[in-house]
Amino acid sequence: MLTTIEARPEPFTVEPSRTALIVCDMQNDFGAEGGMFHRAGIPVSAIQAVVAPTADVLAAARRAGIQIVYLKMEYEPDLSNLGVPEARNSIVHRRFGVGDVVQAPDGRQSRILIRDTWNTDILPELTPQDGDVVVSKHRFSGFFETSLDAILRERGITSLVFTGCTTSVCVESTLRDAAFRDYRCLLLEDCAAEPVGSNFAHSNHEASVLVIEKLFGWVSGSAAFEEALGDRTVAPAMTA
User: Catalytic site residues?
Assistant: First the structure.
């Protein structure tokens, strides 16, 4: 059954069974005290502010049978997938201390942006559930050298709803790559964020929202998304 979501530049119509909700990089290194951004002196309050609406959107999407896909920015322990030393990706992340050993808030030893550590765990309020998909990535785009495209196509997904951080970097990079692959993309602007008051700027979020609306997809908000889905609930599959 088709669902129409109020959006810009025009309403966005989807079939929930062929739609995936993307949660981009909502992990401790970006949104938690003690994570990479926080340790670097970058405020995480704007990212924390989108956790609650994102949690509500996740709940509505799961009830409607929309596939949930989490993206996680993380590297191998030996940094073998970081890139060559002179590559920009390597330079930027080394400045943030990628691979450094740190102590997590719970006292455990952890490492910045390294897989299977506290630092790259999804924020606890948004913990993945059974049936959700988690895709590890090592560049800003979730499509670069990952299984994301194959996973979506195997499930017959044609429309993507985007949430996460940061709006102008990993969210926009992934959304652009999705649009290039002919996925229909909707950004929920109050479920995406930039770390305001740092080297990032609030205007970055607004610029990304504008370019997405004009060129790469559609823009809406959590309230419109939840209203469109209403109380739609997909019955659980019967088991033998």
Answer: 25, 137, 170
